[in-house]
Design goal:
Elements (H helix, E strand, L loop, with lengths): L5 E4 L2 H4 L8 E6 L5 E7 L4 H10 L10 E6 L3 H15 L9
Antiparallel strand pairs: 1-4, 2-3, 2-4
Length: 98
């Protein structure tokens, strides 16, 4: 089971402070802590990927107030864990057969 110990407000200031040195899996949560989306971001693209959810119309997910994340040593491990997590929790805004 993954331990999402890191939780930040979902805004530009908080996103700009996130670490970039390792790939991550992230969960986007609403105000009741419901998981709306699970994603993965490569090393050196963490902040950029999360800002896409905040600013790009086609990537925006309504109701997100918090982001939780866990770092991985490789993108391969992160993608494998992401797939398992999506299957387990079935977030509303993820494609379920990814």
């Amino acid at each position: 089971m993954l331990k999402f110990k890191n939780a930040k407000k979902f805004n530009r200031t908080s996103i700009k402070k996130l670490p970039e040195e390792k790939p991550i899996i992230y969960k986007l949560l609403n105000n009741t802590r419901k998981e709306l989306y699970v994603g993965v971001a490569k090393r050196n693209r963490v902040q950029e990927r999360l800002l896409e959810h905040l600013t790009l119309k086609e990537e925006k997910i309504p109701g997100v107030v918090k982001v939780k994340f866990v770092q991985f040593s490789s993108i391969e491990k992160a993608k494998k864990a992401e797939k398992q997590l999506i299957k387990k929790i079935q977030p509303k805004f993820n494609e379920q057969n990814k």
